[in-house]
Design a protein that fits this description.
The structure is a single chain. The chain is of the alpha+beta class and 153 residues long. It has a single domain, classed as minor pseudopilin epsh fold (3-Layer(bab) Sandwich), CATH 3.55.40. It is 37% helix and 27% strand. It is built from 2 helices and 8 strands. The strands form 2 sheets. Strands 3-2-1-5 form a 4-stranded antiparallel sheet.
Length: 153
């Protein structure tokens, strides 16, 4: 007896097995992707802090890392202009980054900005804690900018 192909029952069994495996693995994949997004948001803000320190030291003036919360959590860096110094003028050194939208996270912080002096040291007397929360419950991470202006995990 020559058989070509598969019977409908065999195909149905394979489809059911694939469905069960997918139902078990999709929540774990979603949680892993959310955890990666939270970690990426933390790394992004750490990069902004390093950029603010570098801008302050390179330009020889105050640089500020700003935070804005809410649904579209944002961060950006400003510093004095390189070519036209003057009162009330600042350059946006690092782009305004919509961290909340880009990484699907919520950002909360203890201070709305971190200021760096021309030596690249923090002008604040307290540490700043930035917390990130993902869409999946339990996916959180945090970043601490200490009193010297260094990023500590």
């Amino acid at each position: 007896m020559n058989r070509r192909g598969f019977s409908a029952v065999e195909l149905l069994i394979v489809i059911v097995i694939i469905g069960v495996v997918a139902m078990i693995s999709f929540p774990k994949i979603r949680s892993a992707l959310d955890k990666t997004s939270v970690r990426s948001a933390r790394v992004s803000i750490g990069t902004f802090a390093a950029e603010a320190r570098a801008a302050a030291a390179q330009r020889g003036c105050k640089a500020v890392l700003h935070f804005a919360g809410g649904a579209a959590s944002q961060a950006w860096v400003t510093a004095c202009p390189r070519l036209k110094p003057g009162a009330g003028t600042v350059d946006t050194v690092a782009m305004i980054d919509n961290v909340g939208v880009r990484f699907s996270t919520t950002m909360t912080y203890t201070r709305d900005s971190v200021q760096y002096d021309p030596r690249g040291l923090s002008m604040d007397n307290a540490s700043t804690v930035v917390r990130f929360t993902g869409d999946v419950a339990g996916n959180t991470d945090s970043l601490v900018i200490n009193t010297l202006g260094r990023v500590v995990r």
